[in-house]
Amino acid sequence: MPYKPKRPCAYSGCGLLADSDQYCAEHKKVVAKRYNQYQRNPESNKRYGRSWKRIRDRYIKTHPLCQECDRNGKIKAAEEVHHLLPLSKGGGNETSNLMALCKSCHSKITAESGDRWGR
């Protein structure tokens, strides 16, 4: 299957090409750091540290398919892990509170619940 063509990095003044993301590898780190430092809630940074990444990776390994797509009869790889009851509302990292989702399903569920924008 052919690959998507590379696109120019969206970072101002960068002439490098990016694979499938908006930014090249170098600027992806810069943009993520800036987001975490200035836009993300500091309390959120504490909740999503190294231990969360280990839990997330372990959960994705045991649940490799998007559970929402699977429910709708589609087969799609899981890329993100969703908390059914958000940590900010008292949820935890127990496997019963987690759900493996693809990016589009995770974005859809998060937007519908309003969790990302503090509603």
Notes on the structure:
It is a single chain. With 119 residues, this protein is mainly alpha-helical. It has two domains: 1-39, no CATH class; 49-119, DNA Binding (I), subunit A (Orthogonal Bundle), CATH 1.10.30. The chain is 42% helix and 10% strand. It is built from five helices and four strands. It has helices at 25-39, 42-47, 50-62, 67-71, 103-113; strands at 7-8, 17-18, 80-83, 98-101. The strands form two sheets. A two-stranded antiparallel sheet has the order 1-2. It is globular and about 45 Å long. The mean pLDDT is 84.
Question: What's the short version?
Answer:
The chain has 5 helices and 4 strands.
Q: Return residue spans where pLDDT drops below 50 for at least 5 consecutive residues.
A: none
- Shape, per Cα inertia axes: globular
The helix count comes to 5
- Tell me the number of structural domains: 2
> How are strands sequenced across the largest beta sheet?
1-2
Q: Helical proportion?
A: 40-55%
> What is the level 1 CATH name of the largest domain?
Mainly Alpha
Biggest sheet features: 2 strands, antiparallel
Task: Give the ordered list of helices and strands.
Answer: EEHHHHEEH
Backbone CA Rg: 16 Å
Query: What does the average pLDDT come to?
Result: 84
Assign the CATH architecture of the largest domain.
Orthogonal Bundle
